[in-house]
Write a structure and sequence with these properties.
It is a single chain. With 212 residues, the protein is mainly alpha-helical. It folds into two domains: 2-116, Resolvase, N-terminal catalytic domain (Rossmann fold, 3-Layer(aba) Sandwich); 159-211, no CATH class. Helices cover 56% and strands 7% of the residues. It contains ten helices and four strands, in the order βααβαβααβααααα. Strands 1-2 form a two-stranded parallel sheet. The chain starts with a strand and ends with a helix.
């Protein structure tokens, strides 16, 4: 159960109680058990979903309890008055498998969306795709600039890149007492110097470390 009041005066009035009664009546009719509740008092309807402490706690509860996947509100505008914030919040919650249900119109978010809701969802999807494409272009440009300087910018990291230059000194120190590169690789694995998979280094990798 989630309730929200938009001003301090509503906190002391009947707004929260009215919301709770409407939600509990709906839950009883539908056979839904309310296991947690949260409220954001004196919070504006246009405030971002993520900035609300009460709702954030409730979302955390839902995410960490697999059987809890529905949040009931009195009306959609108790969730948010701003339709963009409302839709963004709905989409974010949907990603985590959480459904928001206004008890005065249970199908508000899922059944027959209004033209404005459809438009906003399409716009938000287009913005997300634009940001993704822009990021890809920025990363591609950065890689090309790095390659132009002769530096390595992608692919698997070398042993030295992962562990630092000291790894070569470790290999050379072990060479004093251990004659085979295979034995050195096994000892280095015991010390935490391995391939990305966790396997010991190859003999050739050890040889390159020793020879610089």
């Amino acid at each position: 159960m989630y309730t929200r009041t938009s001003s301090a005066t509503n906190v002391d009035g009947d707004s929260k109680e009215r919301q709770q009664i409407a939600i509990m009546q709906y839950a009883e009719r539908e056979g839904i058990q309310i296991v947690a509740q949260a409220s954001d008092d004196a919070v504006k309807g246009a405030d971002p979903i993520g900035a609300r402490k009460g709702l954030s706690r409730l979302l955390d509860y839902c995410i960490t309890n697999e059987g809890v996947r529905i949040i009931l509100v009195e009306r959609a505008d108790r969730f948010s008055r701003d339709q963009v914030v409302q839709e963004m919040g709905y989409l974010e919650m949907s990603k985590n498998g959480i459904e928001i249900i206004p008890v005065d119109a249970p199908g508000y978010f899922t059944l027959d969306p209004t033209p404005s809701q459809t438009m906003i969802r399409q716009i938000l999807g287009a913005v997300a795709q634009f940001e993704k494409d822009s990021l890809v272009l920025k990363l591609r440009g950065a890689r090309e600039r790095i390659r132009a300087t002769g530096q390595k910018c992608e692919g698997r990291k070398s042993i030295s890149e992962r562990y630092g230059k000291d790894v070569a000194q470790v290999a050379r120190a072990l060479k004093i007492t251990l004659k085979s590169n295979g034995a050195i690789a096994r000892r280095m694995a015991e010390l935490g110097y391995t391939q990305e998979s966790g396997s010991p280094l190859h003999r050739e990798q050890v040889r390159r470390l020793i020879n610089g």
